[in-house]
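Justification of computing resources. Each target in the renewal requires a structure prediction run like the one illustrated here; the chain below, 69 residues long, is used simply to show the kind of job we budget for.
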Amino acid sequence: MFHDVLGLSGSRYPKFVRVYVEGVQLLQEGLSRWAADVRSGEFPAAQESYRILDGLRGAIVNWTPSKTS
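Resulting structure tokens:
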């Protein structure tokens, strides 16, 4: 039912359905904005990213799994 209420079921609805928001349009707009930000390099920005502590990068890059018997 929530798919109908949020307008996620397509463009044709049964007579008894009341659509409260055009969810498909909102999703398309949001995903288009996100894709544009990713393509342009605007996302992720520094405040949306984690940094590896100095000295830890080498340990991660050179890590190999231990051999177990």
